[in-house]
Amino acid sequence: MKNLGNMLKQAQQMQARMQEMQAKLEATVVEGQSGAGMVKVSLSGKGDLKRVAIDPSLMSADEREVLEDLLVAAHADAKQKVEAQMAEEMQKATAGLNLPGGLPGGLKLPF
């Protein structure tokens, strides 16, 4: 029973850390860019689009296709940064928890 009590305590610690991590991610804004900074996209830590900035030189009809490609690339850059930050925060949230299994922090689902 002592082992079960320790596991429950660790699970509660992890839950508290996860809540802290989620609050931190909600407050985080990450910027991705493409075209040497000509297109910038800002995403929240949860992946919500917050802002798009486009260099005026790309606002001509001739540059439409380039602009579309740069927007996609800037979004992909920002998304990768959000995912990296989320992984880092997840690692911090589960650090020191000695839970058995293969999920973050060792937590393993029963199915």
From TrEMBL:
The keyword Cytoplasm applies. Binds to DNA and alters its conformation. May be involved in regulation of gene expression, nucleoid organization and DNA protection. Keywords: Coiled coil, Cytoplasm, DNA-binding. The lineage of its organism: Bacteria, Pseudomonadati, Pseudomonadota, Alphaproteobacteria, Acetobacterales. It comes from Roseicella frigidaeris. InterPro entries: YbaB-like_sf, YbaB/EbfC. This is Nucleoid-associated protein DOO78_15115. HAMAP family: DNA_YbaB_EbfC. Residues 1-31 form a coiled coil. Belongs to the YbaB/EbfC family. It is found in: Cytoplasm, Nucleoid. Homodimer. GO terms for cellular component: bacterial nucleoid; cytosol. One of its GO terms (molecular function) is DNA binding. It comes from the Bacteria.
